From TrEMBL:
GO terms for molecular function: oxidoreductase activity. Signal peptide: none annotated. Keywords: Lipid metabolism, Oxidoreductase, Steroid metabolism. It comes from the Bacteria. This is 3-oxoacyl-[acyl-carrier protein] reductase. The lineage of its organism: Bacteria, Bacillati, Bacillota, Clostridia, Lachnospirales. Coiled coil: none annotated. Belongs to the short-chain dehydrogenases/reductases (SDR) family.
Length: 243
């Protein structure tokens, strides 16, 4: 049986991990990555392998082109071509824009946006040659509307949304679909800084009256990767009706 291969960046925990587990359950070779937490990534690898699939765990900053190139070299050697790319690596910065230092800006742009450029440019040539491939970018509703005190994060997610729409047009003739999932408030460690009353206020703002689950994002990402040959260039909100 010729297994398909998926790469999920930023997949040691949270949404990325949930997506990796989903694809493992569906029988894919799974490539996972994180910037530094090798122990957490190794735990995720063991969990993936419990579904009797192969897993490559790569620790490194895919916001750095040479590091991303090294990762793709390992994927090629181990599995051949990549079928699905899920650009999930992301960090947030919460604070006043006027307090932000250039180092913070550069780090968030490299992690959230340059990583998408790096992985897309490395994945696309084989996808074009195979006339097949799926690229799914994990975005945020703040990329659609912007968030106070999360200006840089909103800027990177807005750029990902535009990149998704433009790249989809460029790659559609090669039968490669590019879509983005604009997540709302998902129950992950990224939101654990909130106090109980802040969390309650947030939930009250969401018509579905709850946070989303990482597994719900994973199910949707898998659906986009598995079907929908005509759906491309879309930024789809998954936010319980919030924004």
């Amino acid at each position: 049986m010729n297994r398909k291969t998926v790469l999920i960046t930023g997949s040691s925990r949270g949404i990325g991990k949930a997506i990796a587990i989903k694809f493992a359950k569906k029988g894919y070779n799974v490539v996972i990555n994180c910037i530094k937490n090798a122990d957490l990534l190794e735990q995720t690898k063991k969990e993936i392998e419990s579904y009797n699939v192969s897993c490559l765990a790569f620790v490194g900053d895919v916001g750095n082109y040479e590091t991303a190139k090294d990762l793709f070299g390992q994927i090629k050697k181990l599995y051949g071509d990549l079928d699905v790319l899920v650009n999930n690596a992301g960090i947030s910065y919460i604070g006043l824009f006027s307090d932000m230092k250039i180092e913070d800006w550069n780090r968030i742009v490299a992690t959230n946006l340059t990583s998408v450029f790096n992985c897309c440019t490395l994945a696309i040539p084989d996808m074009v040659s195979n006339k097949s491939g799926k690229i799914i970018n994990i975005s945020s509703v703040w990329g659609n509307v912007g968030a106070s005190c999360e200006v840089a994060y909103s800027a990177t997610k807005g750029a990902i949304n535009s990149l998704t729409m433009a790249l989809a047009k460029e790659l559609a003739p090669s039968n490669i679909q590019v879509n983005a999932v604009a997540c709302g408030a998902i129950d992950t460690e990224m939101n654990q800084f909130l106090e109980d009353d802040e969390l309650l206020n947030l939930i009250n703002e969401i018509p579905s009256n709850r946070l989303g689950k990482a597994e719900e994002v994973a199910d949707f990402v898998y659906h986009l990767a598995y079907k929908n040959g005509y759906l491309t260039g879309q930024v789809i909100k998954l936010d319980g009706g919030w924004i």
